[in-house]
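Q: Predict the bound structure with pyrazine-2-carboxylic acid.
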Amino acid sequence: MHALIVIDVQNDFCPGGALAVDKGDEIVQSINALMAEVDAVVLTQDWHPAGHSSFASSHVGKTPFELIEMPYGPQVLWPDHCIQGSPGANFHPDLEVDRADMILRKGFRTAIDSYSAFFENDHKTPTGLEGYLRTRGIDRLTMVGLATDFCVNFSAVDAAKLGFQVTVLQDLCRAIDLDGSLKAALDGMRQASVTLA
Ligand code: VGL
Ligand code: ZN
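A: Predicted complex:
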C-alpha cells in the first residue's frame, strides 16, 4: 500500500507568509493531482503554540535563522510561524484538504520542535505516524511539500530508517536553503536510501 505524505503546505510557508519558501505555492495543483494515484493521503501541519521555543522571539537577543543549542541538540531559530489557529497555520487555500485521510499536527510542545513527521527533534519522541501507517498496511511513501531541506528531509530520512520505501518528488517540494542546507539535505537523503525523483 502506498501513501502520499504532504508536508506542511501551509500559508506561512507560501509567498506572503511568515516563513515564506520561495515559490512554495507552485506545487499545490500537482500535489492535488497526485492524491488520486495513491491508497492513502496524509497531510502534516506545523502547529506551534505562541511563544514556541523554535521562535527567535522567544530568546532574548536572538534573531531569526541563528543556530542555538537546545537540550535535545542544535536548533535553527525561526520567525514566529504556524501559530495554532492562526491564518498562517492554515493549509494553502487551493490544497484539497478534504481528500486527506489523516492530518498529523506536529511541533505542538513549547519546549521542542518537530521537523519530522515521525519524531520530534530529540529524534526519540514519536508523533504516532509510524503506527498509523503500519496498521493501515502502508509500506511505500511518496513525499512532497515544504520545505525540502527541513521538514521534508527529516521526515524522509526518518521514514527510510524505519524501513519504509521512500521517494521524494523534488519538483513537488521547495527549499528554504540556509547556508547550503539544500545540498546537505539531498546528500543526507541519498545516503539514507531515499529515492530522489
Ligand atoms: C519547517 C522550519 C520550521 C518546515 C517548519 O516545514 O520545513 N521549517 N518549521
Ligand atoms: Zn515550525
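A: The longest strand covers residues 165-174.
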